[in-house]
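Lab notes, practical 5.
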Amino acid sequence: MNNPLINPGIGTFVWMLVSFGILAFILIKFGWPMILKSLKKREEAIAASLNEAAKAREEMKSLVAHNEELLRQAKIERDQMLRDARTTGDQIIEEARAKATAEADRIVDAARENINYEKLKAMTELKNEIANLSIEIAEKLIRAELSDKSKADAVIAREMERMQLN
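Output from the prediction step:
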């Protein structure tokens, strides 16, 4: 069991101390500042990332608030458009009703006028027919009455006297 690694001798121990000291000196002189510099850079990068994340978070809050405002305005505009559409629809329906009522009144007036015209026409035809019938009856009566000469002279004399009185 004379293994020099398990039971090192004094010389080996001194050389190991000298080698470790040189290595520690090189690391402290050249390696440690680089390690600290990279740690500093990493720390700055992490701080910058955290700042950017905070800025992004604030920006997202701002965008969310802006989007909510836009959504609220869009809802208001939509509601206004719906109210306008309903109002316009009601106006169109009212105008259509007014036009339909006016057209119905015009048709009723035209029908009444046509009925009155037809009534007057029928009354005129009836009067003409009655007049024609009266003339035919009078003609037949006069022929029957005037068929006798003495009766005819009496009717003529009576009518002449009546005309002179008027």
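Observations recorded by the TA: The chain is about 95% helix and 0% strand. The longest helix spans residues 10-146.
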